[in-house]
Prior knowledge:
Layout: H1 7-19, E1 29-31, E2 34-36, E3 46-49, H2 53-58, H3 64-72, E4 77-82, H4 84-90, H5 92-108, E5 112-117, E6 120-122, E7 127-128, H6 137-150, E8 157-161, E9 165-166, H7 178-195, E10 200-204, H8 206-209, E11 226-228, H9 241-247, E12 257-262, H10 282-293, E13 296-299, H11 320-340
Parallel strand pairs: 3-4, 3-13, 4-5, 5-8, 6-9, 8-10, 10-11, 11-12, 12-13
Antiparallel strand pairs: 1-2, 6-7
Helix pairs in contact: 1-11, 4-5, 6-7
Amino acid sequence: MKKKLPAFVIAALALLLTASCSTRGGWVKVDGNKFIDPKGNEMVFRGLCFPDPVKLVREGQWNERYFAAAADWGANVVRFAVHPANLNAMGWEAAFQAMDQGIEWARQHGMYVIMDWHSIGNLKDERFTSDMYNTTKAETFRFWRTVAQRYNDEPTVAFYELFNEPTVTAPDTGSCTWTEWKTLQEQIIDTVRAYNPRAICLCAGFNWAYDLTPVATEPVARPGVAYVSHPYPMKRDEPWEEKWEQDFGYVADTYPVICTEIGFCLADEPGAHIPVMATDDYGEHITRYFEQKGISFTVWCFDTTWAPMLISDWDFTPTTQGRFFKAYLKRKATDCADGGNLRSGDGSSL
Length: 350
């Protein structure tokens, strides 16, 4: 008769398996169009967007329990959406101390961190879509110097998302060409790498970080970067896949792509006032497309009020999109523990 392993032994083994797909062992790298884990294997990141850490601190939800819940959903990466206004309101040192603790919790639960400078608008002209996003070029460079110096020996903070959603089509956001925006991103990358050459910088295109078509002829002229898109359902009419391929997906054939915001809500759900409504098959379409292309992603938003929400309360009860993505992430985390983070050349799991 076989002896049943004690529950604590089973839990420890599960943590070790998860760690093979997470933060244990060193820095993530870029190799061609792939992210490579510390063991030299291709790694696909699938995780959750957190709202602003300052918001969660104010609400009493920035705690180890919150990070444990994200890990339980199957995330191997989480994104910190750092808003300039909130950072200044709390004070930089206090906010960074809170993020230090969050990074430790992420490490404990086997998750990497995307540090995201969460502004929307035109950084070149310093014109933004809301007061909460107001910043300057000088402050943006200061933020990334601070991050790169503070975490230059912390592989958990693997990704530096330079600017959340660039746009020049929103009202009163001025003008900026792709060449000008590319040059500004390159200057930020140079600043980051003066302090942390191992950081992977994430570069977004216009149309609220959706459009990567200029990369075909004028890519960011720095090695080891990855590109960002936010393919919410309203960006294109269905059928989506051919348009996704034209607008951002083709980039994944040459460079790593991580879609740091995706998500949806239904017309009768909280958050439907913002233009992310979709039928509930959007999740199936977007995740299947990502699997075919080897694209990483984080889902917006692991919060009860920032729409589209993944949870409806602080017991982490999932919303409609939350149910879909929780099941998907948990399934992929199980596959990963069995070796499914390795992909063959045709996009299928080995």
